[in-house]
Structure formats: C-alpha cells, structure tokens
C-alpha cells in the first residue's frame, strides 16, 4: 500500500552510476573495440587527404548497431586532428542523417546552412532547387581545400537528390557549369540497407562505391567486450552478477549482433533490479529485459515500420504457424490474412499482392520461407516461418493498433501450440462456417 503522504521518489540509485553510456547514441566511446580492420580500411581511404591528393568517395554499409557511425566519427576526428597538425585545408560536414530530409531542396539547404553564419541562413523555401545547389557550390568553393560530406542513412536520401547529389556533387569540380575550381569534394555515405546500392544507377553506384567498407555483425565474444566497457561505466561497482554481461551479449549476438540492443538489455535489466529494491542485477533480470525488449521492438515494427497490409500479413503468418495440425502454406496465410483484414475492417488484397507483402517482410528479416517440392504430384509450395518467437509477435500485436485484428482466442491457440497439442482440427476455409470456428475473427 502506498502512503499518499509520502513522496515515492528516491534520491539515490543503488544500481546505476551513470546511465548516459547506455542511452541511445548520446555517448561517444573513447575506445572502439574489434573494428581494427574496418578502421584501417577507412584510414587508408582517407589517407589521400592528408598527403594532398583528392579525397575518395566511400560507402560504408552493414546492419544496424554495428559501429558504422561510431567508427566514422572517430576516424573523422582523427583526420581533422592530423589535417590541422599538417596544415592541410579540410572542412568536414556531418554525419548528417538523410532521414530528416524530405526533398533535395531541404537537404541541400541544410548543407548550405552548415557553412553559413547564423545571421545568413537560407530559409526553408523561396528558391529553386537549382538555386540552392548553386549556393552550395559557392560555399564549397569559398571554404576551398578538401570538403568531406558525411551522409548517414543514405538509403533515405530524398529520391530527387539521388543522382544530383551522389553523382554530380563529387564531380562538381570537373563540371564547368559550377563555380567549383579549387575545392575537392569527397562523399561518405553510410547505410544499413544492403540493397540500396543495387537500386542506384550504375554510374552513381560506381561513384559512391569507389571505396566500400563493410561492417558485419558482432559475435558474442566481441559483444561481451563492448558491453563490458559500457557496463563498467554505467553500473555501480559490484552490482552486476558475473553472468549479466555475457548473457546480454549472447542474446544480442543471437539476434543481430547489434550493440544498441545489448545496451538496451543492460539498461532494462538494471531498471528491473532497481524496481525490485535490490542492489544486484541478476541473470533473471536480463532474461526479463530481453523479453520486454523483443516485444517492444516488434511493437515498433507494427506501429512504425510496416504498412497496414504488411502488418496484417505478418500477423496472419504468425497465426498460420501456431495453428494446430497443418503447415503455414501461402494458401493458409492468405485465408487467415483475408479473415483478419475483413474482421478488422481493412481492405482485403489479392493473393498475388500477398506474395509481395511476404517478400517485403522477408527482406526485413521478419519472415522466411522454405520451398517444398511436391514430388510426383509435381509443382512446389512454400512453407512460411517467422524469425521471432510467435509469443512475442502476438504480444506486440495485442499492444498495437492491430489488436482488433487478432482473433479473440489467439492466446488459447498459442498456448496449445506451445504445449504441442496439435489437434486434428481442419484448416478454416473462411467460406465454410464450421471451419470459421477455429478462429474467432472478432
Ligand atoms: N566497436 C565498438 N566499440 C565501442 N562502442 C561501439 C562499438 N560499436 C558500436 N558501439 C556503440 O554502439 C552504439 C551503436 O553504434 P552505431 O551508432 O555506430 O551503429 P551503426 O552501425 O551506425 O547503426 P545504425 O545503422 O543503426 O545507425 C553506439 O552507442 C556506439 O558507440
């Protein structure tokens, strides 16, 4: 019982010493672990700047949370330090996150403003896109020397900036129509969409990909070192049980090899420990944290990343998997998809469209498929699976705006799926009222 006369806030924290290092990207590490090879490729690509050659364009890619931005910033700072020591003219802009810009105009305007004084900033509208490009060229020529522009999440670059920016800008010096004569421009693009380069025009591809640096996921041992470094700063001495960091590292390695996720697990585990009024973070807290984080991540997919049709397809695939007695074939997924779309008053698309949605989900790593040959009968069929635990997916769906699409007995079906009590129940063909009984689509 809470005594309402008391103030429940605590002014002390028995668990955390300094939370900042665990917080999302607001902390720059002093040490970068396990990226020696990538750093040396980076240094090699930028070495030209220090000795007076033209800068290279560099494309940095790899999955999320594997140190692309952290390494880029570290290398950038070292390059600036060296250039200053050697008196080499160098002006670096960024990393600028392309996700924040909707058009070439807004992206270029913000770059121009990076060069300009506060009292001389460009307004958000009022010029043509060609005009703002001209301003950018003028600013670049005015600072002269080497100008490096670092664009993060370059896969989100506004489509109308793709060619002008990624191809024309690095060549502006050679183009007689620009005022750039002495400045040398180098572009560094960072992306976690591995397919991004494939969709670029070949000439843009070869410009940006002059040098490519690939970052792979971390393994459990590497994550253990990295998470250990952050945990030492973030937690009070002696509060972490020995297994906490290795377990958080093992979980994140199993998932995506992503540091950010490991840091979130540690932070959440610490919070569970704090809520339990103890002064030790245990393995159990890490397990609890992992479960919550997985549901939260899936919830983000439902709310932010997936279109409503993709979300329904994802949910239908999950239902098809937990459904007793048969496989998650395209037909089954389609039946369930149409039923939940209909029962939640959303448009029902064709089976051909469903293939597209499944394909998109598989590109995002949420769904995978296995092809089965039907032997002498001929033909083949696809069996679908989800990459996350169906329990977490259903929990996330129930917390999301798609909760009205989750059949009311889904949890019960899930329970029997988990208990492996496959029943003989036939697949519900939605036109058959008897079969509709398996799922309660309301
Ligand atoms: N090798 C490492 N050593 C120390 N800290 C690291 C290392 N790799 C990643 N980090 C830390 O992990 C977090 C995520 O890394 P970072 O932002 O660089 O990932 P990213 O690959 O750029 O991800 P995204 O593509 O999502 O932007 C940051 O706090 C970063 O400082």
UniProtKB/TrEMBL annotation:
Residues 314-397 form the Cdc6 C-terminal domain. Belongs to the CDC6/cdc18 family. Involved in regulation of DNA replication. InterPro entries: AAA_22, Cdc6_C, Cdc6_lid, ORC1/CDC6, Orc1/Cdc6_arc, P-loop_NTPase, WH-like_DNA-bd_sf, WH_DNA-bd_sf. It comes from Halorubrum lacusprofundi (strain ATCC 49239 / DSM 5036 / JCM 8891 / ACAM 34). GO terms for molecular function: ATP binding; ATP hydrolysis activity. It comes from the Archaea. The keyword Cytoplasm does not apply. Pfam families: AAA_22, Cdc6_lid, WHD_Cdc6. ATP binds at residues 66-70, 218. Keywords: ATP-binding, DNA replication, Nucleotide-binding. One of its GO terms (biological process) is DNA replication. Residues 428-442 have a biased composition (Polar residues). CDD domains: AAA (cd00009), Cdc6_C (cd08768). This is ORC1-type DNA replication protein. Residues 418-442 are annotated as: Disordered.
